[in-house]
Amino acid sequence: LAKRIARRIRESGGGLPRVQANGFWIEELACAQVSMNLLDFRVTPMWKVWEMVYEEAAAEGVELRESELIGLAPVAALLDVADHAGAPADSPVETRLAVAARFLKLRAFSPLQALELRLEAAEKAAAQAREGNASLHAIAPIVRRARQPRVSLRIIRGGRTDAADGLMVVGASEVVTMAGGLRAGPAQADPAILDASPGPGTAGGGRRERAVIAMWGERIVAIGTQEDVERVLEAEGLSAGRFARLDAGGAVVTPGLIDPHTHLLFGGTRENELVLRQGGARYLEILAAGGGILSTVAATRAASEEQLANHGRRWLTEMLAHGVTTIEAKSGYGLDLATELRLVEVAFQLGRVGPIDVLPTYLGAHAVPAEFRARPDGKDAYVRAILEEQLPGIAAQGRARFCDVFCEEGVFDAADSRRILTAADRLGMLPRLHADELVPSGGAELAAEIGALSADHLGAISDEGVEALAGAVAGPHPVVATLLPVTTLFLMSGHYAPARRLIDAGVPVALGTDFNPGTSPTPNLPLAMALGCLELGLSPAEALAAVTINAAHAVGLGDEIGSLEPGKLADLVIWRVPSMSQIPRVVYETSS
């Protein structure tokens, strides 16, 4: 299918001039993909290519679900699409780019995929990093990558038009929707459950109807009783006969779990550090002696891309078995541009093929690498390298959604963190940070100041930090407090984050594993839920909100995942328990 379409549209097959194309079947995604190079968008514009692929796919009875812009494209090419789509010519450039992205059904589009905007942002960030000119060797790859703006149009095969195109989950005893948005304060304890409702003409203990979830393509279209769902489908012009049925067998349905803090990719292991900690060694002491993160950096730099990918696939499969469907994945074990680029690229590619979604984070400011530690100005020199070389290079790659910094005494202070995260934000990477894990370091206050998506760890958060996070909730950028109790358990410090104090102050709380080789060597998110209940004082409902809707907001996807609502992605898990009241069984018996 994809090869037939590619042959018809490429110039060598008699199709569109100045267009190269090839087609692929991607088994892991069960989709056809047509990948194209537009050699001159002024001869054949992007919208014309998209429309031809759309028409060819429709003729085959296949829906074009999404497209993806690989690398960068000139602003003029994207604005041409916006003009074709009817965007007002006098509207702001960002608005017109958003119209173009919607028209092309672009997946995860950022305005900084427009060449001139990326160059402008890179030059500003580098100029602010120091007086004088920007680092041209870091910006040059942006220009090279944009010479042939490549549009990858992915056509997901939804079946012939006379076949079942949707899925209906029936027979659930409870559907835990988490509907209603970010949970903060008392609302974190409200799971918004749809349980079995009384059937027509029944009272009290009569027959009860179970909730139904109807999904069409990748989206939820209706949720409620069978009657309610069929009414919505009829209004949408969808026949119930076009939906395959999946019987939940009286189980509980929840949103897919989201792990908002992992260090997925690394080389080597660090089991020897457990013995050191048992002997009284502290985390920062191990790091200062060349262990900890630095030992993992050496092993990761030596690992090939294939080795890292195989490693990642193994752990993603295990995460999926624990009900996790989305993770954030940090780099940070390279601490040089080449290795950091490799880590981000592998994470991005793993997310494309599954089995779960992977959201890459650049964490070059994880530690000061050994080659800088020997210098008198070691940390300051490394911060300059991040600002002038690594950040522009990562931005040019266009894979990292987020930038993170380890804001901690003896690593990077609040001033360093502010410089790095502000520069990253200008380059299109959303800020998040490791904050106040071991001692109060001003990380929570900084997160509130810059509008970070998430402040993570918080085992040593100050009263001022709690107050700052609480104050941010009412502002335009609420900061999610992502707590990582497995790390505290493994460090044997006993200094767990004050979850109850945060929730009582109105701060939204999420939970993550902090999966990494040294201080939390487990991908088991339900274990983090259990510790959230046992050590942090969360109720089961609060713990579940912490790994669904609040975790979704911690990764900037609260409008897409984390709850079961019409219009959101069909991202859900079925648990073999009859009631949410058995949540302890879910968090203890992960085989469920």
Provide the descriptors you would attach to this structure in a database record.
single chain; 592 residues; alpha/beta; Alpha-Beta Plaits; Urease, subunit C, domain 1; TIM Barrel; 3 domains; 8-stranded parallel sheet; 4-stranded antiparallel sheet; 23 helices; 19% strand; disordered C terminus
Tell me what you see in this structure:
- This protein is α/β, with parallel strands linked by helices and 592 residues long.
- The protein has 3 domains: 122 residues, Alpha-Beta Plaits; 90 residues, Roll (Urease, subunit C, domain 1); 305 residues, Alpha-Beta Barrel (TIM Barrel), CATH 3.20.20.140.
- Helices cover 39% and strands 19% of the residues.
- An 8-stranded parallel β-sheet has the order 14-15-16-17-18-19-20-21.
- A hairpin with a 4-residue loop joins strand 1 and strand 2.
- Helix 6 runs parallel beside helix 14.
- The longest helix is centred in the middle third of the chain and has 20 residues.
- The chain starts with a helix and ends with a helix.
- The relative contact order is 0.11.
- The C terminus is likely disordered.
